[in-house]
Amino acid sequence: MFLKLLKPGDRNPWVELLQLALNRSNFLKGGIDGIYGPKTEAAVKDFQKKNNLSQNGQVDGTTWNALFPYLTGYLQHKLVQGDTLYRLSVKYGTSLHQIEMANPHVDPLNLQVGSTVIVPLPFPVVPTQLRFTPTLLEICIQGLTARYPFLEVSSIGQSVMGTDIPCLKIGSGLNEVFYNGSHHANEWITSLLLMKFLEDYCKSAAYSGKIFGERASDLYILSTLYVVPMVNPDGVSLVTGELTQGDYYEKAVTMSKQYPNIPFPSGWKANISGIDLNLQYPAGWEDARDIKYSQGYTKPGPRDYVGSMPLEAPESKAVYEFTKKHNFSLTLSYHTQGQVIYWKYLDYLPPKSKEIGLMFSSVSGYSLEDTPEESAYAGYKDWFISEYNKPGYTIEVGEGTSPLPLKTFPTIYSNNLGILTLAIIASL
Ligand SMILES: [Zn+2]
Predict the structure, then answer these.
(1) In this structure, is residue 289 part of a structural domain?
(2) I need a surface site. Which of 80, 85, 173, 313 has the fewest CB within 10 A?
(3) pLDDT of 165-191, one tens digit each?
């Protein structure tokens, strides 16, 4: 995983990761702002001193390694004579159950000196106060899969820049459902939404708990949930400030100059080649093209360019191929914003789709609406409905201008928890 060398004066998303780790290790109170100022520097030096590292205030590979458990939420403890899992739980302030959950193949009564065990640390993995970058996604996936080994990760393909597009799988049921987020770059808060939900679902499943009133073990047994939290990692990287140089960045700058009224990079929705990934699916693509061309989106740019043909962008192609390999009974595509649920494509009426849509509307407070004509074609939902005649939804979360500020996240999460939970079993 690439974690950038940091020094005082830096301003970037890696500084937010640094501040998160310092918060969680109690070297810094609050103040996650992505600016490496004097308070952060003092905290880094303090951390370096306590960890016997050279106190240069620079966050290099060695310091990042020492901070890393406070990002992923677990550390690897090498067992010595006299260790018991219970003693480890006391030493690290965690619970015995959490350690046992993370180490299903370790026999607590027969610990092997010299082998390592995973020790989850006493805080949630997925932070809600940071820009959700592709790096943070990778960190959260590593943390969640270590803590909850029944959560499986794979890759559905690669982005234009060669970044893996991860997929998480949870559950053992025959019924398959699929959620995706961040087709659009400046809608990255939907990746956070999906990851936070996965953490809560995993936690409930691990501890025989309930989520939104449902027994997690029932959901787990009835359905298998697949989540692709970030379809467009390159675009998210651009909008969140991780990508600030290099050929792809320069090309994006050049493309954005063709559309001077769209702020850069905050108005960027497309993939890094300037193709709108949710106008790439083979469902009325020509109609989408005609509409978007007439609106002036005739070449690669920050948004609304349909590409030169369907499935030209590798990210949309990967989602398409992945869908083809499965038998999804229901899909949710997460976008921002508007607090609206779209459920229709043309005059298709998949069985149960209206009734499920109304139920989603009632548990979220979002309105169930027909898709406006100007965005009625070539989206993932449109293709899914036309290909399978099964319920597929586009959910536009939150209110405001994308990228939505993180302070809107708690409301977005509470509004969507019911949809995210009940969609797992709604199509049964
Ligand atoms: Zn969108």
Answers:
(1) no
(2) 80
(3) 999 999 999 999 999 999 999 999 999
CA distance 249 to 251: 5
Cα 16 to ligand 1 centroid, rounded to whole Å? 25
Q: How far is the CA of 19 from the centre of ligand 1 (A)?
A: 30
C-alpha 88 to ligand 1 mean position (Å)? 45
From 123, 117, 118, select the one nearest 203 (Cα to Cα). 123
CA distance 256 to 264: 7
Residue span of the structural domain in which 318 resides: 134-234+313-426
Same domain, residue pair 106 and 190: no
Q: What is the pLDDT of residues 41-79, one digit of tens each?
A: 999 999 999 999 999 999 999 999 999 999 999 999 999
Catalytic residues: 377, 396
CATH number, residue 95: 3.10.350.10
Residue 78 sits at φ, ψ, to 5 deg, of -85, 125
Same domain, yes or no: 97 and 142: no
Look up tokens 């959620």; give the residue.
179
The domain tally of the chain equals: 3
Distance from residue 280's CA to the centre of ligand 1 (Å):
13
- The answer to whether residue 298 sits within a structural domain is no
294 domain residue, yes or no? no
- Same domain for 379 and 328, yes or no, is yes
Distance CA 34, CA 48 (A): 20
Is the entire prediction scored with pTM above 0.90?
yes
- Inter-CA distances, 95 with 72, 83, 158, 214, Å: 17, 15, 38, 24
Burial of 18 (0-12, 13-18, 19+ CB in 10 A): buried
Distance 332 CA to ligand 1 centre (A): 12
